[in-house]
Amino acid sequence: MAGSSLEKIIQTGQPRIINDLVQYLRQKPESESTRLIVNEGIRSSLTCPLIANGVPIGFIFFSNTQTNTYTNEHIERYMQIAEQLSVIVEKGNLVSQLAAQKELLEQQNAELRRLSVLKNNLLGMVAHDLRNPVAIIQMMTAILRNPNLPRSPEERRRLLDEIYRQTEHMLLLLNDLLDLSQIENGTVTISPEPVPIESLLEETVNRHQMLAAPKHTRIELTDELNGKLYADSLRIRQVLDNLIPNATKFSPPGSVITISVERDGNWWKFSVTDQGPGISPEERSRMFEAFSRLSARPTGGEKSTCLGLAIARKVVLAHGGVIDVSPTPGQGATFWFTLPADPLERA
User: Fold this and answer.
1) Separation CA 233–CA 239 (nearest Å)
2) Per UniProt, which keywords does this protein have (predicted)?
């Protein structure tokens, strides 16, 4: 509209009469809007500005198929119509704005309610998960400190080992909480770089193979591992360090955990497949929520902070990837995620 005759109407607030649009088009052949209405048979027009509270909000066009239709005597009447229409339009805009603001407030309130519930659940679960280990540690240290309850070196070692396991679980929970909080707040920096897939997976599998040995669980790699991905290697190890132990934890002793990777265009797809109980469709929707407790239980009495999958999801999303699970109830599950390929290898 800048530079057009309509801009002048807005600036001055004065209506415009053109009683011979054909002649006007000869003078301004570049006016496409005039050409369109002339082709429709319109020969005269009266354009009035719509002004609400001193602010221009649009125009109203009156037109006729005859030339010399409008005179100055028409202006007052049509400006009254324009003024009334301006009020209607402004009220409509206000109603729309109020409706939009109401919807936004409802969304914000719903989010606040969700966060409040999440906070309460978080506090309750953290208190529960920390209280039990603290109670066990307190009981065992009381036994060790009681001079009236002498213990053999083997018994003392067993009690100290249990204290160590409990503190290890608490430290794991606190570290996971810190990681999740930092990722949620955006204070964790993702530093992507070319990462060789083969060395990443072989190092990860070797490390977890030792941890899975007590359950006689094997972790196997499949498919071709040549290539690089473009990611933060430390954070991707964190994703694998959550998915692989989960697969071991919920699979029966003697199971095989399969890890595969395949190239799909500009993305690498990583998969971790277990032989556990699978996941029901009802539970799938909340798999990656913090502190989400599902019906499946660890087969070897392992403990869980219920934060690992939430952390893995945040890390993958921060890389622009996707993470999901393909469950088959009663037949195991495959957790998979995608990461970008090395930019140098992209087509």
Assistant:
1) 10
2) Kinase, Phosphoprotein, Transferase, Two-component regulatory system
